[in-house]
Amino acid sequence: ATLAATGNTVSQITACGTNGSVYTGQSCVKGTQPICSVIIDAGNHPLVQTTTCPAVTLGARCPVQCLPGYNGSTVYTCSSNSQWTGNLSCVLSACPAFASNAPNCRCNQGYTGALAFDGYYWQGTCTPSVCPANSSGFPACTCNSGFSGSLTWNYGTQTYAGSCTPVACPANSTGAPACTCAAGFRGALSWQAGTQTYSGSCQYVPCPLYSTGAPGTCACLAAYTGTITWLPAIQNYSGSCIFNVACPQFSTGVNVAAGCTCDWGTTGSIAFSASPPYYTGSCALPGFYSASAFSGYVLFRAGYTAAQLNLKLSTDVQNSNYIRQYSVSALSYWSFAADKDADSNVYYCLIGTVFTKIVLAKGSTATTSTFYSYSAGGTIIGSAWAPAMMWTRAIPGYGAFLAAGYDSNCIHVLLFNNGRTAISGTYTVPYITDSYGVDVIPKQASGFTYHFAVAYTRNSKQMSSWTVDMTVGSASGWTNRIDNSYSSGVSGPSNGAQAIYFPPGKQMYAGDPYVSMNRVVMTDTTTAFLYVWQVTQSGTALVWNFLVKVAVANAGGYPYPLSVNSYNAIA
After folding, report:
1. Is the peptide bond before 248 cis (omega within 30 degrees of 0)?
2. Surface-to-core class of residue 239, CB atoms within 10 Å of its CB (0-12 exposed, 13-18 middle, 19+ buried)
3. pLDDT tens digits, 515-556
């Protein structure tokens, strides 16, 4: 038997025939009363389920239902003509939220859950899942920028299949997955979702002029100063490098490229060079203050009452040996001072009012001449030379002769003119009676931050120091006087004559163990000893540290180290 249908409505059920035969599932059997088909077959009606009826006799009722996913059912009756009669309408049942594919509803892509049709409606819910790692765009998840891979939804397992793996940044870039050009490189990078690759490139940005270094970390070359910084926002460096090799020792100026001038009172010149150390030349102190200029010879005062200067090797300071002797009558009882700026064979001494110039000739002769009549002289014991480097180029000076006023309670200062052809002015610095030795300590030679002057007196057995500004041109330039005491015959002379400053590197005698120090030496006219003190700076004061008592050839004798130039002038 077949089920005829039009649309969603069953209109007629036919039996094996009209002769009362009954379909048993295999064939028609003739009966005595109307029998309907055991099976109601949907036939060509796609929406109705095939139904097996429990009873097929006249008046039997058989339920008929729509296919799953369609809402509708009815009861058919076996009629006298052996046909099932009744009407059935099948309506498509809507899928639940986040489900589709009616009449076979299932959770949509990205959603999980179990759905069941109860004959009328779909039961169950669909719950959203999450995109796999490194992906987004739910529910149609795709790999994020910077990741590659393929993702598909498996409806059977209700999971995403596939994965997203990171894509390496292009050359010279960093910051995956959001790659940007690394420091020191410039360019634009963009992610192409279609090909899952980066497009663009990063090009090297050279270090600015006069700088070098790894990309993004440029620094100024050795001869230059400045700061170089990489700015990611503009993909470029900021800052610059300016040539700035400082002027070398004993010279001043902005830098060697701009020009350096040797300090006042030094000799030499500085010129710019394109090669390290970026300058040529040097500025030299007067030979007396330079260790490298020491000749190995000394002039040795033969004695307090002697009028002789002995030329000696420095190895003979402590014995009576000498190479040559100069007789200089003007020296009797007095000290002498070398013109350290001339660095030659010129010396000066002051006896009473007579200021005398002494020129030692090659051989053993000495020429003396009255250079200046100094009315304030009096009795003079020790003397010294203040070199031109104690002045400045802005306020120049040309050297000065200093003398300890034994009976005038002062230190006499005689200033030279340009060329040292005359005395341009004088002044006195108040001190103590019985003033003996005096000398100066230029800061260029000592490494101190001030120029100092030192003196000592027999009267109160004291050593004194001042900070000195010779550019003032008067006693007011001598300030910050500090007095220190010594013990007569132990750490200082019982009867002195001279004070001598020895800069670092300048030896008093061969084998001097204290040659690396700043030292002040005091002579003794009673005994043949030199009293050696180390001096160091503490602010505007000198700190005195007694070192040693050194025996020399004769009482009152003391060595004056000769530079190569001053030795060659008389050799």
Report:
1. no
2. middle
3. 999 999 999 888 899 999 999 999 999 999 999 999 998 888
